[in-house]
């Protein structure tokens, strides 16, 4: 192996694995956002404080969670994301492959094959 070949192999390895890392991060952030939305909706609809629905829940959550990315606006978006794609979890669970990192159709394409749905929100992570 010469120096030029070494540089080429390192650059290629970096490029391929960097793209895979970004894809994995996007998948995991999408799942995180979905589950946060699910938890909020479940709490609002079935929680002990059901009477508190609409009474600054998202504001209180944003003030209580000590991590970036949990502003009141983001929490609303997480909830909207879940409400727009309530069957996302069944698409994941019913997948032919247990490997979530495998390249697949977008969730919206998979929903079109399962049943009619409307696109209520366009949501993009990162």
Report the major sheet: none
Question: What integer value in Å does the Rg equal?
Answer: 19 Å
Q: Give the terminus-to-terminus CA distance.
A: 39 Å
Q: Please state the average pLDDT score.
A: 76
* Number of H/I helices: 5
**Percent in helix:** 55-70%
Bin the strand percentage.
under 5%
The helix/strand order is: HHHHH
The overall strand count is 0
Given helix and strand content, the structural type is: mainly alpha
Tally of individual domains: 1
List low-confidence stretches.
Answer: 100-106, 110-126
The shape, in one word, is elongated
Task: Describe this structure in a few short sentences.
By secondary structure, the protein is mainly α. It has helices at 3-46, 57-64, 72-84, 88-93, 107-114.
Task: Tell me what you see in this structure.
The protein has 126 residues and is mainly α. The protein has one domain. 63% of the residues lie in helices and 0% in strands. The protein has helices at 3-46, 57-64, 72-84, 88-93, 107-114. Mean pLDDT is 76; it is low at 100-106 and 110-126.
What's the helix and strand layout?
Blueprint: H1 3-46, H2 57-64, H3 72-84, H4 88-93, H5 107-114
Keywords:
single chain, 126 residues, mainly alpha, 5 helices, disordered C terminus
